[in-house]
Write a structure and sequence with these properties.
The protein has helices at 3-16, 21-38, 45-52, 56-63, 66-76, 90-121, 123-150, 164-179, 185-199, 204-207. By secondary structure, it is mostly helical. The longest helix is centred in the middle third of the chain and has 32 residues, at 90-121. It starts with a helix and ends with a helix.
Length: 209
């Protein structure tokens, strides 16, 4: 690296360090809220600057462009999600997962819908969307099913087992399109009771919660 390049890198690092993690989180929250309210196409750096009461130049210095800022905001939403759930039974795990997913669906579903089209045009944005909202939930649901197999609640070759994540996460996104309603806690709990558990060969009345 030349001395000129090193000086440029040091200058960039110095500029970026002016924004604290707490302040960056304020920007991320604003970005995600604006995405839910108006969608990706309507999101502008000017809008984020206005919502957070900062100069537009601050956003461009720190993130460079709208796509980079959105990707950073999505990465900031990573959370444990369903990973903490372990009730001791597969039925109990899936019921609790339905409650957690349903409680968040009012915020997660609009965000996914607002970014879906843009994400298909941007591999980086699609990756960030999957890592923030999809991959952790998929992994947690698969772990629940695996534990159920290890406990002998369902057989290891149960044909419905691999579709559990697709059922729960898919219906969360599909219900607003089909019925114009969010897949809330009550709806997802009924879905688990009436569709997911029977498909796995589990009797909801016998397995408890």
């Amino acid at each position: 690296m030349s001395s000129h390049d090193a000086a440029q890198e040091q200058g960039s690092t110095h500029r970026r360090s002016k924004i604290t993690p707490e302040r960056a989180q304020e920007f991320y929250v604003a970005v995600l809220d604006l995405l839910r309210e108006s969608g990706y196409e309507s999101l502008t750096m000017e809008g984020v600057a206005s919502r957070t009461r900062c100069g537009k130049s601050t956003l461009y210095r720190q993130w460079g462009s709208k796509p980079e800022l959105v990707v950073a905001a999505l990465h900031s939403t990573r959370r444990m999600g369903l990973a903490h759930i372990d009730t001791g039974t597969l039925a109990g795990d899936l019921r609790e997962a339905a409650e957690v997913i349903g409680a968040r669906s009012g915020r997660d579903t609009p965000l996914m819908h607002s970014l879906s089209h843009a994400a298909l045009q941007s591999p980086e944005l699609l990756c960030a969307l999957r890592e923030a909202l999809v991959v952790p939930e998929l992994a947690a649901l698969r772990t629940m099913v695996k534990r159920g197999m290890e406990r002998g609640e369902i057989s290891s070759d149960n044909p419905a087992a691999e579709y559990v994540p697709a059922q729960l996460l898919g219906v969360m996104r599909a219900r607003p399109l089909l019925e114009e309603k969010i897949a809330d806690e009550a709806y997802l709990t009924r879905f688990v009771e009436c569709a997911v558990l029977p498909a796995l060969g589990l009797d909801p009345a016998a397995t408890g919660s």
